[in-house]
Design goal:
With about 280 residues, the protein is α/β, with parallel strands linked by helices. The protein contains twelve helices and eight strands. It has an eight-stranded parallel beta barrel with strand order 1-2-3-4-5-6-7-8, surrounded by six helices. Helix 7 runs parallel beside helix 9 and helix 9 runs parallel beside helix 10. The structure holds 3-methyl-2-oxobutanoic acid.
Length: about 280
């Protein structure tokens, strides 16, 4: 049986159907090899525009381009076969008009083969989300702290800590659900607000810094592996790979300098020539 036939990839409707059911497990990936590992454990892999900071050392996600997202989206699709892969739409590729959003999203889907796109924004993006979903593009929405609006928000600040501020966030959640998003990422909001939104809308909420009340969770892989120099309070470090990599590179450097690496087991000898009889 072909690989395709025995392992069906999850779709946006499969994730949508998980509302109120088993929690949706999601992480980010930008590479084929990490995607292959995540694919064994995750329902949803996000090729996040956080790659700007994680892979490229940028200060924010603002400079990330569509070409960068497509290149890494292709790598993640090659590395995975089970999880739904969603690719983030970078800043400037979708906000000008719903037509601009459609052309950018169609390019992402054609060139990567991914099953969905993600975009930031609630009520203000509802018309665009409806336009895309009616034209065959599954949309994962993203509300709460939206990193592409960092300059307008004035920093990476937790949202909704005062119940008198909740109205716009609830309206955002309602708007993206009504517009046809199959799920919504809620970032860095106070737990009671995340709970209220999760109760109020029919699509799954996927939390990042939004407490366990959400229908699923997502983290940036490098943050939870302990590879990012700084990580927000909501990240649990499941490993501490930074120091482990440092130790491995230090050992390699020392062995190269001492000529202890490569050892005889890493060296190619000449072909053995059979002795003449
Ligand atoms: O870009 C990203 O990695 C994201 C997640 C943090 C949700 O948007």
């Amino acid at each position: 049986m072909s690989k395709q036939a025995d392992q069906k990839r999850l779709t946006a409707p499969d994730i949508r159907a998980r509302k109120g059911g088993a929690p949706i497990v999601s992480l980010t990936s930008y590479h084929a090899h990490t995607a292959a590992v995540l694919d064994r454990h995750c329902d949803l892999i996000l090729v996040g525009d956080s790659l700007g900071m994680v892979m490229h050392g940028l200060e924010s996600t603002i400079p990330v381009t569509l070409d960068m997202m497509i290149l890494q989206g292709k790598a993640v699709m090659r590395g995975s076969s089970h999880a739904l892969v969603a690719v983030d739409m970078p800043f400037g590729s979708y906000e000008a008009s719903r037509e601009q959003a459609f052309l950018s999203a169609a390019r992402v889907m054609k060139e990567t083969g991914c099953g969905a796109i993600k975009l930031e924004g609630g009520s203000r993006m509802a018309d665009t989300i409806a336009f895309l979903t009616q034209r065959g593009i599954p949309v994962l929405a993203h509300i709460g702290l939206t990193p592409q609006s960092i300059n307008a928000l004035g920093g990476f600040k937790t949202q909704g800590r005062d119940p008198s501020d909740w109205g716009p966030f609830e309206a955002d959640a309602r708007a993206v659900a009504d517009a046809g998003a199959f799920a919504v990422v809620i970032e860095a909001v106070a737990e009671p607000l995340a709970a209220k939104i999760t109760r109020e809308i029919e699509i799954p909420t996927i939390g990042i810094g939004a407490s366990p009340v959400c229908d699923g969770q997502i983290l940036v892989l490098e943050d939870m592996l302990g590879l990012s120099p700084r990580a927000p309070k909501f990240v649990k470090r499941y490993s501490d790979l930074g120091p482990a990599i440092d130790r491995a590179v230090a050992a390699y450097a020392a062995e190269v300098r001492e000529r202890a690496f490569p050892g005889p087991e890493h060296v190619y000898a000449l072909k053995k020539v059979p002795a003449k009889s």
